[in-house]
Amino acid sequence: MEVLRRSSVFAAEVMEVFDRSPTDKELVSQAKALCRDYINSRLIRAGVSWGKPEYNAPVPGGKLAEVSTILLRLGDELEYIRPNVYRNIARQLNISLHSETVVTDAFLAVAAQIFTAGITWGKVVSLYAVAAGLAVDCVRHAQPAMVHTIVDCLGEFVRKTLVTWLKRRGGWADITKCVVNTDPSLRSHWLVAAVCSFGHFLKAIFFVLLPER
């Protein structure tokens, strides 16, 4: 089984890029590091045991850790509003977790539908919640290796779809404005955007079910 965590040297490099304008490659690396942390948090919350203890270490300190904390906090709110949407993802999509191709295609189809009407932080959080929900399903069905596949898949989607948007906002640290700003309209904005993504997520379920497998 492939490890969930990168080396400490890699983690330090990911942290460094927050101090300057990140490149496309760095944004993708950060996206994957955040995804690993989000998934690990949800596995722990679900009481799912897997891997070795060192795989479960949190992301390193600094701005990356701050971004991860906020992403998880927003994810908590999102999952609290619509808990059934982000649980039992595989059953909702009616897919087998034994095929990497099926899991990859299903996740990318859902991701594409979430962002059909544009990109917002609410939808980004929704994407991570879907990835984590699917990862929990994989581990519960004795397919822990699929977690790494999901992380890579999310990274590829970020590279193709979200990198330009992220660069315009100065990188992942922009998500901190969702909770640091005290303006209630800002919080309302991301929540409304996320709620809108639920509709796209449900459409994606039907989209995945349509092709023959």
Detailed description of the structure:
Helix 2 packs across helix 6, helix 2 (24-45) packs across helix 7 and helix 6 runs antiparallel to helix 7. The longest helix is centred in the last third of the chain and has 26 residues, at 184-209. This protein has helices spanning 8-16, 24-45, 63-81, 89-93, 100-114, 121-140, 145-168, 177-180, 184-209. 68% of the residues lie in helices and 0% in strands. With 213 residues, it is an all-alpha fold. It is built from nine helices and no strands. The radius of gyration is 16 Å and the shape is globular.
List the helices and strands and how they pair.
Elements: H1 8-16, H2 24-45, H3 63-81, H4 89-93, H5 100-114, H6 121-140, H7 145-168, H8 177-180, H9 184-209
Helix pairs in contact: 2-3, 2-6, 2-7, 3-6, 5-6, 5-7, 5-9, 6-7, 6-9
Number of H/I helices: 9
As a percent range, the share of helical residues equals 55-70%
In round numbers, the mean pLDDT is 79
Sheet with the most strands, sense and barrel status = none
In total, the number of strands is 0
Radius of gyration: 16 Å
What is the ordering of alpha helices and beta strands?
A: HHHHHHHHH
What form results from the Cα inertia axes? Answer: globular
End-to-end separation in angstroms reads 26 Å
Broad structural category: mainly alpha
Note poorly predicted spans. 1-12, 180-190, 202-213
Percent in strands? under 5%
What is the compact description of this entry?
With 213 residues, the chain is mainly alpha-helical. It is 68% helix and 0% strand.
